[in-house]
Amino acid sequence: MVSAKTNLKGRTVYVVDGGRTPFLRAMGPPGPFHASDLAVQAGRHLLARQPFEPDALDEVILGCVASGPNEANIARIVALRLGCGEQVPAWTVQRNCASAMQSIDCAATNIASGRSELVLAGGTEAMSRHPLLLNDQMVTWLAGWNKARSAKGRVQQLAQLRPAYFKPIIALLCGLSDPIVGLSMGQTAEELAWKFNIRREEMDTYAAQSHQRLATAQEVGHLSEIESLYAPDGTLYATDEGLRADTTTEKLSRLKPFFDRTVGKVTAGNSSQITDGAALLLLASSAAVKKYKLPVLGRIVDCQWAGLNPAHMGLGPVHAMAPLLQRHALSTADIDYWEINEAFAVQVLACMKAWTDSDYCREHLNQDTPFDPIDMERLNVDGGGISIGHPVGTSGTRIVLHLLNILERENAHRGIASLCIGGGQGGAILVERQEEK
């Protein structure tokens, strides 16, 4: 078996701490926090309990899909607001749904290579604040208005204004669509339902289970990584808002299909929720761990990225997880716990079917025999994106952080966190922790 210390081709990379905000449902109006506000509040809690000052960080790396107009290079804004000082560089990464996982990969690579010792990495997203844009007709009309200097010219320009010019472009919907294959993310999920013959009842049952697992996790205190949020008006946000504890398969079955209203199976109820939230990790070299006497949650062993047909983007986790197991000579049974982001219930179910399908493994995964099934009792054990929410620039960090916390509480050794990525990609991270003897 490959040694964990060799996988990043350099020094061992440790995760020493992490935290996230509650995930807040987008309810229509802009949420109470900008993306930078979310990251700053999560970061303040995280850095306040460390034995070093924020300016001891070597860099800050954040994922974000669509920061606000006043948040260009949002990582730098967050770093300065956290008191990291002018000399700590910061940069922002974007890989759609896996942006926050990309930040972890970048941080781990820099630590393994010796370029950094201590890095704050993670992601943030305020999906409720993704902008409304002017269409090209209105932009063209406004350009003409600005050029009109005389009263006559402005009257002539006003005469050209049409009601259709006021129709906004919803940036969020554009971002959740694939321009190459011309499908929304929900339509790609419908593709998977057809490809693997997944029934509507299976999707709704899985979605109900996500809510039930989150309800149990909240009740027994398994979400210790959440740091409370305080809004400017003093409102306290302490728990994820997406939970519907009374959800059942029967209730979900009453919802109408959303992405294919005639013969579709994917509904709002068996899809992830549009959400605001931030999640951060503190990564360190062994030298930094020793210098500051830091605790260790676990270590980043390896990371894998994969590409596939954008119309089947939901299978991205399978394409990313398979090389990790192959490279490290691991089997399904060698992984104690799994976190696969729940973009859609059908997407997770399709991954489970592809994972054990002989033809798919041979044709797409360079695997002569199919993988053994993943134990559903070890997958997303405390719920996932369907119940918790999926702020696209954040989820990659949330699932890695929570996976490490699961390994710690269960005294387990090894886990994989993975996501599908709009545009036809997948990402996966292999983590380990030392089991107590």
User: How much of the polypeptide forms β-strand, as a percent range?
Assistant: 15-25%
Q: What is the structural class?
A: alpha+beta
| Number of separate helices | 15
Radius of gyration: 23 Å
Shape: globular
Termini, distance in Å? 21 Å
Regions with little confidence, pLDDT below 50 for 5+ residues: 1-6
The total strand number stands at 16
Oligomer: single chain
Mean pLDDT: 94
What is the class of the domain at 178-221 and 301-431 in the CATH system? Alpha Beta
**What is the helix content?**
25-40%
Question: What characterizes the major β-sheet?
Answer: 10 strands, mixed
CATH homologous superfamily of the domain at 178-221 and 301-431, by name? Thiolase/Chalcone synthase
CATH fold-level name of the domain at 178-221 and 301-431: Peroxisomal Thiolase, Chain A, domain 1
Known CATH architecture of the domain at 178-221 and 301-431: 3-Layer(aba) Sandwich
Question: Any overview of this molecule?
Answer:
The chain is α+β, with helices and mostly antiparallel strands and 437 residues long. It has a domain at 178-221 and 301-431: 3-Layer(aba) Sandwich (Peroxisomal Thiolase, Chain A, domain 1), CATH 3.40.47. It has 15 helices and 16 strands. Strands 1, 2, 3, 4, 5, 12, 13, 14, 15 and 16 form a 10-stranded mixed β-sheet that branches. Strands 6-7 form a two-stranded antiparallel sheet. A two-stranded antiparallel ribbon has the order 8-9. α3 packs across α15 (395-409) and α11 (316-327) runs parallel beside α12 (345-355). The two termini are 21 Å apart. Mean pLDDT is 94; it is low at 1-6.
